[in-house]
Every structure is written in structure tokens, then in C-alpha cells.
Amino acid sequence: EEAKKIVLVNDSSLPEAKRIKIRDGSKSRESRVVIQGWVHRLRLQKGLAFLVLRDGTGFLQCVLAGDLANAYSTLTLTLESTVTVYGVIHPVPEGKSAPGGHELAVDYYSIVGLAPGGDDAITNKVQESADPSLLLDMRHLVLRGETMTGIFKVRAALLRSFRRVYEDMGILEVTPPCMVQTQVEGGSTLFALKYYGEDAYLTQSSQLYLETCLPALGDVFCVQESFRAERSHTRRHLSEYTHVEAELAFLTFDELLVHIETLLAKTVAYVLEDPEIAEILSKLNPGFKPPQLPFLRMTYDSALDWLNERGVPNEEGEAFKFGDDIAEAAERKMTDEIGEPILLTRFPVEIKSFYMQKCADDPRVTESVDVLMPNVGEITGGSMRIYDLDELMKGYAREGINPEPYYWFNDQRVYGTCPHGGYGLGTERILAWLCDRFTVRDCSLYPRFAGRCKP
Ligand code: 4AD
Fold first, then answer.
1. Cβ < 6 Å from ligand 1: which residues?
2. If you count Cβ atoms within 10 Å of the first and of the last residue's Cβ in the chain, which end, N or C, has fewer?
């Protein structure tokens, strides 16, 4: 009853408040500011209330004293409510800590949207211990947690850094289509759709389109969603993922390998250059060591020897032999034991795609590479491309693909062919490695996998 009688007023004799975002708090100390955001944490004491405000740019501790703390609206305030707070930011007293090393002494606040309390309170909707599928149903609320916001800030920094390295290298960004009529990585993972009565697919990779850009624009890259109807429920497969791909003209396989390792090392260095991101990463992945150049190079052949020497079996439970796929479990064994990035090269023709260039010194294997990282395994797949038309036709025949819908891709080998190569990077896998997440699902805003297409 007492609390209901308190009326909060915005004192017009106080200086006018400057509207700021929390990230600019340090620059705006000791003058009156107004900030809007969400109540991230809330602690009520007698005559004192501490609320941590979140606005996406940071966190700010706000201190409410006297009437402000005792008012009914404060006593009934809930987590995730939106508020407008007025006051002055001061450094925290010696020996105390708060985000940014300061706190807002509130002189007035108002509520924009009161979130529910009780049974519908956010803490009942989003419990760490909940079943993962319930948490995915509540993804829109889970996203507000500190771990998730940290990951998505790192994600933005990662994409920004890739673009910065490409800019440094003079490689141009293009935007290929998502709706296509050709496959790149095998028919079994295509999502088919009807396109005005024609058969079409969601793209598995923009590679073929990037190849056609080379004569027009020179070296190119794209950041595009790729779609795979993966049936396997693994911690590193999504049905939709963000694919960073590049294609480079007139280079050798060795140059391609150097390009890939340089790109990855420089990108990580740029990510860590940002102090906010470095701080987030030090919490998510305290033991993270930036990769050192050059990366270890290992051929497929020597990987089989490595696995056989340690008695790691193939998928049939037998010793590895030439032509076997190195599946996830075996790959992980290698990455975890070796503990550093590996460029795994020269895979057999039969286990790779129709477009891959064969090695000049051994036609059983291709100029192909997978980049393997500790904890996740493959984060990148790339190769040199067949640039002779007849050779390419043999590739289609081997894989039982009708070359007709690929006429535009084939023309690349007719109108001024050239040696070229490229690769695709799985954004969510790189993030799982950087942020030390168990699954790529944590690294996608709204992950899609078999059985999950909501929210
Ligand atoms: O190895 P992939 O299938 O290679 C290609 O698509 C090439 N056409 C790319 C190119 O050369 N332009 O895929 C490349 C990378 C993988 O190394 C992996 O990081 C990621 O894409 N990836 C997936 N990430 C999440 N979920 C999936 N289902 C993925 N499939 C591939």
C-alpha cells in the first residue's frame, strides 16, 4: 500500500538527458543520460534495487535508491521487461565490480513493456536444464542469454573478418542464386522444389556460379546459405548453413593450400583484434590458441596409415584401405590427437565430386583438400577444378549426371578455360571450433536440421 502511493516523476529541473547506447557508457560518464533496454538481472534489497540493463550493445548496472527502489512498479518489476532509465553514470566504488567498471545512478525510470512474472516468467520458459528440443522451441527467448549473444557477436565478427581479408586480397563479393537446377555435392542431399512447374533445388554450394564469374570479375567470393537434406543427426550437420566460398583463377594446387591457410589465420587474427570479441572468446573458449602458419599437411594416403597404425577402424569395422571414406569418428580421432589444424589432401577420385581435377602424378587421386580442426573436424572443403571439357564430361558420366543442365558451367571450359580452384567454409563449424561449442546448432541463429524448421 505504501509502495503504491509513491509517484515517480522525471524532475524537470535536472539537465536534459542525452540518449545513448550502453556501449557508449564510458564516454558519457558524469553527465545525465537516458538509456532504453531490457531488464537482464534484478536484485531488490531494502531501499535499494540493482538492475542490470541489456540493450544488445552491452550490460549496465543501474542503481535505484529511496523512492525509486520502494515504488510499487520496482517491487513488481520482472526480468525481460523493457524500461527507459535516466541518470548519471559513475565509476563503481573501489573494490566493487560491474560491467564497464561503472554504474548508472538512476534519477527516474519508466516501464515500456512489463514482461510476465509467475508461471509465465522467462525463467520458467528458458531453463538451462530443459530438454534441448524445448529450448529450441524457445530459441527466440534463449537467444537473449549471455552465451548465445556472445556466440552471435563472434559470428558477426567472423563474417566481418572474412570480408576484410578478402578485401585485403582484392577478391570481389558476389551473390549467386539460391534456387538452382544443378547439383554440386551429390543428389542424395538435394532439397527439391517446384519452380513455376519446373524441377529446381535449393543450392548445395555456389561453387559452379562462382566459377562462371572468374572471366568476368576475376577472383570472387560469396557468403550464401547452402542447403543439404542431410539425414544424419550429427553435431556438425545442419540442413541450412552459411557457406563462405571463393574461387580463384590461374593458380596451382599448392598456391590454393597457402591461400586457404592464410585466409583462416588472418581471419582469426582480425576476430581477436576486437577487444570486445577477444573478451567474449576468452570466456567461451579459454584455452583457444590461434592457428600457426604453416598448417600441417597430410595426404589421404598417409592419414590411412596413421589410422591403421593406431588400430582405428573404418566404417565396416575393418582396417582402412584405399577408397574408404574417413568418416566423422575416425576424423575426430585424428584431429583430437594431433591437436592442430590439418590440411588433408589428395582424396581418391571415387569419393569426391565430379568436378575435381586429378593429380598429374597419380590419376587415382584428386587435387582436393579438407581443412580439419580440433574438436570439430572438417571446416573447409576445396579443390582444383577440371578445366578440360572432355575430362569434365567423364566426370559427369562417372557420377551418372546428365551434363545438359550444366551447359553454362561447361561453357566455362569452352570460352577461355583456365586452371582454377576454390573452396567452401562452413561458418557454423568454424564457430563451433572458435567458441568451443559441442554442436554447430549453437552457432546458427535458428538451426535447421531433420525434424526442425521452427521457429
Ligand atoms: O565439403 P563441401 O560439401 O564442399 C562444397 O560444397 C564445395 N562445393 C565448396 C567449394 O569448393 N566451393 O562443403 C564445404 C564446407 C564443409 O567443409 C563444411 O564446413 C560445410 O561446408 N558443410 C556443412 N556445414 C554444416 N552442415 C552441413 N550439412 C554441411 N555440409 C558442409
1. 184-185, 205, 207, 228, 230, 237-238, 241, 243, 245, 378-382, 422-424, 426, 428-429, 440
2. N
